[in-house]
From TrEMBL, chain A:
Limits of the Cysteine-rich domain: 3-84, 132-215
Species of the source: Peribacillus psychrosaccharolyticus (Bacillus psychrosaccharolyticus)
Annotated protein name in UniProt: Lactate utilization protein A
Xref: Pfam families: CCG
Protein's GO biological process: lactate metabolic process
UniProtKB/TrEMBL annotation, chain B:
GO biological process per UniProt: lactate metabolic process
Protein name (Swiss-Prot/TrEMBL): Lactate utilization protein B
Domain 4Fe-4S ferredoxin-type: 310-377
GO molecular function: 4 iron, 4 sulfur cluster binding; metal ion binding
Superkingdom in the source lineage: Bacteria
PROSITE patterns assigned: 4FE4S_FER_1
Residues annotated for [4Fe-4S] cluster 2 binding in this entry: 323, 366, 369
Family according to the record: Belongs to the LutB/YkgF family.
Domain LUD residue range list: 70-295
Organism: Peribacillus psychrosaccharolyticus
Residue ranges of the region described as Disordered: 435-476
Amino acid sequence: MKVTLFSTCLVDMFQSNVGKATVEVLERLGCVIDFPESQVCCGQPAYNSGYVNEAKEPMKRMIETFKDAEYIVTPSGSCAAMFKEYPHVFKGDEKWEQKAISIAERTYELSQFIVDVLKIEDVGARLEGTAAYHTSCHMTRLLHVTDAPFTLLKHVKGLEVVPLPGAHNCCGFGGTFSVKMGQISEQMVDEKVMSISGTKADYLIGGDAGCLINIGGRIERKGMPIKSMHLAEVLNSR
Amino acid sequence: MPMKIGTENFKERVDSGIQNDFMRAAVSGAQERLHGRRLAAAEELGNWEEWRSHGEEIRQHVLENLDYYLDQLAENVVKLGGHVFFAETAEDANTYIKEVIQKKNGKKVVKSKSMVTEEINLNAALEEVGCEVLETDLGEYILQIDEHDPPSHIVAPALHKNKEQIRDVFKEKLGYTKTENPDELTAHVREILREKFLHADIGITGCNFAVAETGSISLVTNEGNADLVTSLPKTQITVMGMERVVPTYEELEVLVSLLTRSAVGQRLTSYITVLTGPKQVHEVDGPEEFHLVIVDNGRSKILGTEFQSVLQCIRCAACVNVCPVYRHVGGHAYGSIYSGPIGAVLSPLLGGYEDYKELPYASSLCAACTDACPVKIPLHELLLRHRQVIVEKEGKAPISEKLAMKAFGLGAASPMLYKFGSKIAPSAMSPFTTGTSISKGPGPLKAWTESREFPAPNKERFRDWFKSRDKEGEKS
Ligand code: SF4
């Protein structure tokens, strides 16, 4: 099966390990990966700050880049949700609306793709220890992917996923919110980190690089012995 | 209390919210209790999503036909012998109510809980003309005797206070001598209020929903105070936001079910009262005179705009009770009697962007509000629309941000520029980097690194890795 990878800019620039892990896991599951070089940012930072016109330029570029892809897969719930939002953004735009709908329909978040399309629940991963899983807001509430990550994690040998109190609360990332409202964001991430540390888990796992950079950055600042890992990295552990 | 509360600016309000440990403990405790209860109450219905869709449909239908239903409502109230007044502004509403009270020579006013009377600042208007106004909802009463402390929550106005603080207010203001036990606190207030009810000449209520077909108004409470407000005084004045109407009892039932479950996680509240006009000849109780004041105060300007769905709101506060921002800053930080997500959407619409331009940004867009809303208002999307209006129409965004976003538009849209920018990032950030992370970032990163590490850009980007790997593959 041919998969066209949408790496996301956070992964491309800051978490290249996550990109590598995504490629390796999917290849092991029999996919052939294509990575179109012309991909840029999905436009979310500008769009979510109210700069809709500015956001449309990179969005159009992304639509062009992915227009022939069969399956568009991305290791991010938030960026997948942004692609799904494109039809809304280009509503009524004769030239772009249909194209936007078409790429939205073919977009999948990594765990969703593995479970729903490849129909695989056990990717053959192994990781010793206990983990708290952060259910990121855009993955669960906008993309409605709630079970797939847990299904995959359940089959990771040696790994025990422990319940995380207040799991439904946002970690305070929110893109530009984290700097625009830095003080409020700090309270939110601090509460999240305290609940994670209360579980005594060895790992914090998540499916969105933004949240992981946020939570992981706070964990690091506090010097806590918790390792943050992206879902793709966990699935690629053997 | 007018809609706007306090004189501090947004940053100061947020600061005092975050530093108020008592408030934060009270709020997060309440959120957790209410969260579980709401989910259980929704679960119990079995098909919650269908109920939500039905609720949304009803509210949308009413808003699309608002003039029709308001006409029908007014006609039926008048038929029953009541009076109806359409108030375009807060001032119009207050003037009318003052006149009614003065004509009756009224002095002692008892009120049940109503957000719209807070919005129009009715109490102050009545006190100016010499009325004694008494709030009879327990939460409102606590705030009133505590030097008019503003409400911090649309359903539980005194949510920011814990029971020890309430005991102290009672000690100071009422000479209370007992403990912080809620039963004792309540019993004390009950004694005081009973007496006041008996001597009141005017009763003022809000209105959860008015029923157009019968000319009725409904009140949803847990304390029963609204029933005393509407049965003891000879004159009753009900004030409602113009959008709070339903066609018939059938829709009322759906919305009340959604309201009580979403607001407090109850199947029904202790009292759900439906009142139809003044006392009729064959009836034994009820007010002799009944006035319905229908308040616009900026609502009709929202109709027909991209923000219309905010008028679907049934003021259940489910969005407030799940909001992580509200959880940490509390209601007063919003600077409006309407706090939380609904407040962040509604306050700029009713009160203008000048006073409320920060509110749409005080959200991580986590969408917990949208998910919780029983009438499916897309709250986080409306916050985004506000941001767009602030940037495009109001011109209230900082210049530096505008330039950055322009550059973003250009840079992110061009694969070449994007590649170039991401390639030079590691060296641009190197002065701030130790090991793999940045502890003291420049520019906008400063706000981040005050509380967190930020990762240094990877020396080898993912795309470089992928390319080199492809090449290797080709070679072998
Ligand atoms: S916006 Fe929705 S959830 Fe919030 S108070 Fe209104 S009806 Fe309730």
